[in-house]
Every structure is written in structure tokens, then in C-alpha cells.
Known about the structure:
The chain is mostly helical. It has helices at 9-31, 37-70, 76-110, 121-161, 165-189.
Amino acid sequence: MPLDIIYSPTMLSVISASLLILALILCGALLNGELTRPIVMILGVGMIVLGAVGHVQFLDMQGRGAKLVAEKFLSQSIFDDFLKYQAIFVYLFPAVSAAIGTNVISDALLKHHTYQKSFSLLQFIKDCSQIITIPLMLLFCLVAVPVLLVFQMVCSFVRQCRHFAPLIFRACYLKLCIIARHALRKKLDN
């Protein structure tokens, strides 16, 4: 079936790994230790939202998969394997992510830790910019790497074709000259 690869365990692992990488980025920002209390709370909410997005993503894949099986675009055996492995990711990852986010928020609200930096509007803006740059750099890398790969392939193709380009150019020039002469003769004959 044409869509079997999308619901394979490998693809499920790729989706889970991407969600895990986002969770690790948020945890890395938390472990920085130089954040203000509001930023820690925002990161906790981000962990909860990430868990909810992961949960909804896998449930949406389950619903779409059932429709694809009914339309014969997905084989039943692959979808059954997907359902077997999906149960782990639907409940385990969101629960862990939301639990960490809840603990971070409760730590920031209830415990009166003295954070290394005191809260000020300027410090809050600096912390927000620091947290926003991490996903933006990740997004930039995801866009830049394929562009650089395509550029590399085009450059190597041009290097390979450099020897043939004069021959192709000369052949095209000669053909155009023949066509032009033929058109000129035809016009003069009329």
C-alpha cells in the first residue's frame, strides 16, 4: 500500500524522537539555572503543551489511519502494528512531559527559591530572547541543511558538465544557424 511507510514503527520513532528533542531543548533551558521565575513558569507550560501536542498528534494519526485502511491506502497489518506501538507513545510521552512541566511550575510557584537573577522587565526580555533563539536556530538548521545539500549537488553537476558545455553550446548554435538559414531561404523564395 502507498502509505505504509508513514505508519511504520520507524516513522513513529522519528515523530517521537522529534518530540523528545523539543522536550530536551526545554529541559536544557531549564538546567541553565540563570532564569527568572516567570521564564521557568513559561518553560513548564511549554512542557505541558508539548505533551498535549504529542498526545493529540498520535491520536490524530490513529483516526486518519483508520480512514486510510478503509480507503485501501494503508494495509491492515501495518496499521495494527502502529496501534500496538502507538499506545506507548500516546500515554507515556505526554504523561512524562506534562509531569515535568507541572513540577517545574509548582517549584516556581510554591517553593521560594532564590533565583540567581531577580525579576525585571529587561531581564525577562533577555531570557525570552535566549529561549526563543534555540528553536529558531534549530528551525534554521532544518531549512539550511537541505538547501546546502541541493546547492552541493548542483555545483557538482555543473563541475561534471563543464567539459560538455562547450560541445552542447556549439551544437545548439549550429542547429539555430541551420533553422535561421532555412527560414531565411523560405522567406526569400516566397
